Amino acid sequence: MTFRNLGLSTVLLRAVADSGYTEPTPIQQQAIPAILQGQDVFASAQTGTGKTAGFTLPLLQLLGTTNPNKVQHRTPRALILTPTRELADQVNDSVKTYGKYLSLRSAVVYGGVGIVPQVQMLRRGIDILVATPGRLLDHVGQKTVDLSHVEILVLDECDRMLDMGFIHDIRKILAKLPQSRQTLMFSATFSKEIQQLASTLLKSPIQIEVAPRNTAAEQVEQVVHPVDSKRKRELLSYMIGFHNWKQVLVFTRTKHGANRLAEQLAQDGLKSTAIHGNKSQAARTRALQDFKQGKVRVLVATDVASRGLDIDQLPYVVNFELPNVPEDYVHRIGRTGRAGNVGRAVSLVCEDEYPFLKDIERLLNQTLTKLVVPGYEPTSIVQSNAEQPKPKRSNQRRSNQAKSPTPSAPTRNKKPAAPGRARKKLHTA
User: Fold this and answer.
1) All structural domains of the chain
2) Is 113 within 8 Å of 281 (Cβ atoms)?
């Protein structure tokens, strides 16, 4: 199947070809025709499956082939809500990329940056608005945006928006929208809350599911390394240096933990930076660009900040700490193994995190492989099926500091290998 078979216009096909895409992904094959027919859509798809293009392309076609609302100033005809700034930027980039041959205007608004430039942009008139819920409500409160002409509403990664407590903001926004509109919901995972929200928002929706519910991408190899909590950082530095990992995304539970780990890894000779909600938007953008360009080898992130990270062919994701919400594990490892590429997800798990691990395995309906790294044996093994390092033939007990044939962790003086550039992938997040 080709994009031409989906009923897209010539100008959109031209933009798709310019971007290097040759054939639609499964989510695009199902979502695009349904949206073009004006139907509500309730879709479940993991990150990296092309879901952004799955709603952006038909949205552009619908708006580009109908007459704009006849008001003095152009007001938004399509509203796309996202949970984070990074994802909002990514979606807006897709709108501009695919809509470059159309005369439609788009804008993105989110917190963490000045509101005045956003107000000026909205006053000039737009057709498509990409926004985070909080900042959008700021504009609604200041009467700097009119949502009464919205024809299409998109809730992107709505599961994360609910996790972040945006449900009340979303309901306030919905109250400002016309009842007669097309609504599209996209979620990486399903939950009772998501299904309840869908039942109140959608009218006879087409339900699309391109992957089993709450499952990790098949292209991601998952492994758990049991280790004592106090030795996690040492093990992480060792693995990055010994295996010469050139681009690694590491997850922590807290913002403070992300800052501290990035500093410790830098002390071990690994160029690292942290990205989280307390960072300014400029700092977050700079950190992400440095990571993409190979100036930084390790990006340490919290769950919230990671949403919308679009990194070509990211090979490694490390859970320095397991999330307490098992669905977040699926979101995390979805950063790798994208667009048909094989990725690797490594989890460093201490005894206290064993309940979280059990919840994750229950959600995935699988038992994750557990391997003990020689020289980093935990005091208490996380799971009985964890493979142990083979003991040495010696009567003397050896401490963790004893000499070992395995290389030691990187030190300040040991410089990591220069990272290489990733090739452009052929799918949109």
Assistant:
1) 3-209 (3.40.50.300), 214-370 (3.40.50.300)
2) yes
Relative to beta strand 128-131, strand 78-81 is parallel
Q: Which two tokens stand for residue 297?
A: 């080898």
63 Cβ contact list (under 8 Å, min separation 6): 77, 78, 102, 104, 127, 128, 151, 152
pLDDT digits 0-9 by tens, 232-272: 999 999 999 999 999 999 999 999 999 999 999 999 999 99
Q: What are phi and psi of 277, to 5 degrees?
A: -65, -25
**Residue for token pair 């005045």:** 116
Q: What global pTM score does this model have?
A: 0.64
Helix (H) or strand (E) holding 113: none
Q: What is the CA radius of gyration of the chain?
A: 23
**Strand, helix or coil for residue 324:** coil
Instruction: State the Cα–Cα distance between residues 190 and 193, nearest whole angstrom.
Output: 8
Which of 171, 143, 134, 142 has the alpha carbon at shortest distance from 75?
143
Kindly write down the DSSP assignment for every residue of 153-195, as one continuous string.
Answer: EEEETHHHHHHTT-HHHHHHHHTTS-SS-EEEEEESS--HHHH
Q: Tokens 């090979």 appear where? A: 315
Q: In 10 A of CB 252, how many CB atoms? A: 23
Cα 101 from Cα 230, distance rounded (Å): 55
